[in-house]
Amino acid sequence: AQSVTQLDSQVPVFEEAPVELRCNYSSSVSVYLFWYVQYPNQGLQLLLKYLSGSTLVKGINGFEAEFNKSQTSFHLRKPSVHISDTAEYFCAVRPSNDYKLSFGAGTTVTVRA
Amino acid sequence: EAQVTQNPRYLITVTGKKLTVTCSQNMNHEYMSWYRQDPGLGLRQIYYSMNVEVTDKGDVPEGYKVSRKEKRNFPLILESPSPNQTSLYFCASSLDIRRSGANVLTFGAGSRLTVL
């Protein structure tokens, strides 16, 4: 079975500063990796995904993530955040040979002026 | 507009009073799933369905039932709700994940349930 660990539960950050959200996973097989964002009082929406190929993945709203197979990580980054990036972010993993999508516990990002 | 619609969005009920949370999608998706979201635990899968009349348990199915009589609908049934089922519930759907590795889920807006 796979598992996902988001290493930070809360990340406060000032507007226009960079942010990194850390995600580690464990799986005995190859995986697909995802980052979802949940804005206040809304459902989740996909930020970006890694299926194969280039390990640097670009998503919506200026976010990017890098897949590191040796470290089993998929960290999310944004070079300059806006107030509107205040949200909860979820890392998710699905083994390539299974249907099940597993989510991390989430990281709450609060952007302050 | 492509969407997943859940109802009700908010519900307060009492222990033991049966309730149903409806979920409907207009994207002709084969795969549908229910999750509950609790602080510090992320999203945990309750039940999922690969297609009409095909359902299976997720990680936390106890106390819940589902049905998939039509492709577009996937209701979540709490036969006898208890306070530990107080949570935020999300329905999600996608194309058949066996055909597409992307498994990009489209989520509903959520249903906040409180059981007293």
Word description of this protein:
Chain A is mainly beta and 113 residues long. Chain A has no helices and twelve strands. In chain A, strands 2, 5, 6, 10, 11 and 12 form a six-stranded mixed beta sheet that branches. A four-stranded antiparallel beta sheet of chain A has the order 3-9-8-7, with no helix packed on it. In chain A, strands 1-4 form a two-stranded antiparallel sheet. In chain A, strand 5 (31-38) and strand 6 form a beta hairpin. Chain A is globular and about 45 Å long. The N and C termini of chain A lie far apart (41 Å). Chain B is mainly β and 116 residues long. Chain B contains no helices and eleven strands. In chain B, strand 4 (31-38) and strand 5 (42-51) form a beta hairpin. Chain B is globular. The chains are: A mainly beta (113), B mainly beta (116). The A-B interface holds A 4, 6, 9, 32, 34, 41-46, 49, 51, 90, 94, 96, 99-101, 103-106 and B 4, 31, 35, 40-45, 48, 50, 58, 90, 92, 97-98, 101-105, 107-110.
Topology:
The complex is a heterodimer of chains A (113) and B (116).
Chain A: E1 3-6, E2 10-14, E3 19-21, E4 23-26, E5 31-38, E6 44-50, E7 56-58, E8 64-68, E9 73-78, E10 87-95, E11 102-103, E12 107-112
Parallel strand pairs in A: 2-12
Antiparallel strand pairs in A: 1-4, 3-9, 5-6, 5-10, 7-8, 8-9, 10-11, 10-12
Chain B: E1 4-7, E2 10-13, E3 19-25, E4 31-38, E5 42-51, E6 54-57, E7 65-66, E8 76-78, E9 87-94, E10 106-107, E11 111-115
What is the total tally of β strands of chain A?
Answer: 12
Structural class computed from helices and strand pairing of chain A:
mainly beta
Global geometry of chain B: globular
Q: Over the alpha carbons, how many angstroms does the gyration radius of chain B reach?
A: 13 Å
Instruction: Identify the biggest protein-protein contact and residues per side.
Output: A-B, 23 and 25 residues
Number of helices of chain B: 0
